[in-house]
Amino acid sequence: MATYKEMPDFDVIIVGAGISGINFAYRLQERSPELSYSILDGRHEIGGTWSLFQYPGIRSDSDLYTFGFAWRPWTGKDSIVHGSIIRQYLEDSAAQEGIDRKIRFRHKVNKLNWSSSSNMWDFDIAVNDTKMMSLRSRFVFLGTGYYDYQEPLQGEIPGIHNFQGKVIHPQCWPADLDYANKQIVIIGSGATAITLLPSLATNAAHVTMLQRSPSYIASLPSRGVFEAIVSNILPRFAANRVLRLKWMLFSLFMVSMCRLFPRAAKSFFLRETAKLLPPGISLEPDFVPSYKPWEQRLCLCPDGDFYASIRSGKASINTDTIETITTSSIKLASGKELHPDIIVTATGLKLRMAGGIAITIDGEPYEISDHFAWRAAMMEGLPNLVLSIGYVNASWTLGADSGAQLACRLLTRMRKEGVSVIVPRMTVEERQALEECPFLALSATYVRKGGNVFPKSAFTAPWQPRSYYWRDLAIARWGDVKKGMQWLR
After folding, report:
1. CA 465/CA 456 separation, integer angstroms
2. Which cofactors must be present for this protein to function (predicted)?
3. pTM of the model
4. Domain spanning 4-150+350-488, CATH architecture
5. Fewer CB atoms < 10 Å away: N or C end of the chain?
6. Phi and psi at residue 356, in whole multiples of 5°?
7. Which DSSP state fits 146?
8. What is the reported pLDDT for 6?
9. Domain 160-345 part of CATH 3.40.30.10
């Protein structure tokens, strides 16, 4: 019989009170209500990404009908909304299900150690950045995403240290920044830059987006006609299901068409872009990407606000290479100079797995990047731990939910079979036979720079990366959970 010291504090500990953590907590309550759990989060409030990022105009880059939870459908009229609304939605969702009572804020997990003697995870936790405490659990769910919340990605910008005006990274946006009537240059062309430009242009004197190469930027109505009709003629429950299904199908169709017919997709996007540009402005060189659609994430702008700012004359795009930055200017390779008051370095985010937690097994360090991911959810050689990863070509929430349902299925089966430990394994021969493939199928700069932090993946099941929601959900509910997995009593 186990002694008191050998008993866990919780059956499951969830790290992260963002979308992944809250969704898993719901699934756990729904499918294994007998299990005790707690959520640990280093921040002061619910939200994760939507609590951290506070730059002007921050919004979802996926529709809220699929970005919202399946168990608490999005009922707002707009499909793309401001980050503060998303955070409030997460808070309300957690409160509705009593999940908020399970969260311990300002509890930062520094270290996780698996003890083979007790078959438990030991947590080293910093509370309020001062007090240290320990907890134990049988199972861990990491809802920490793959961004570094402490340190932004520093782009390689020649001479940036010379600039005597303000230099700001969107991840560290000052709440008191006054940019009214200022000349602003945003360096970057990703979703953050495309969100910032129309927001800053409202009060700034002028905003220039300085890019090395263009991105695909699609205009999406914030309130669609189909959504309005469905919401008016169907009961709310039915309307929610129809709209969620519509957006799932739309996302799958768009990504599939882009990958199967990249030339046709590129022509379509460029035609739509040309319609939104000011008269006399050509697509070249500022609006024709060098890559195929969905080799990088497609950027969305609600109601074409990005293009509206350009048409108004309050914003512009410059495609060029930075030669150097002086105390008061940006010198470009073309010979042109820009004279900003503020430089915003929207050059991407730094990648970091597991929230930077040091993971050890019986005191021996464990590196996620050295191992293969089983079903894109558990790590080879890492017992009783699920890592939540969403989609890059669809809503994050869909991927997080398929992972959560897989985790709940594993927990249920462990209980029914009297199993205390599950751990993905493969033989040396099996490993040698695997043909590796990228864990994330994106060519974005931040992925290329930080991609070595991701787990390994292969073309062979069960070591494949995520594919698309319905396939992953089918695997989570009915797929083989024995292959590549040790079940230990």
Report:
1. 9
2. FAD
3. 0.93
4. 3-Layer(bba) Sandwich (3.50)
5. N
6. 80, 10
7. T
8. 73
9. no
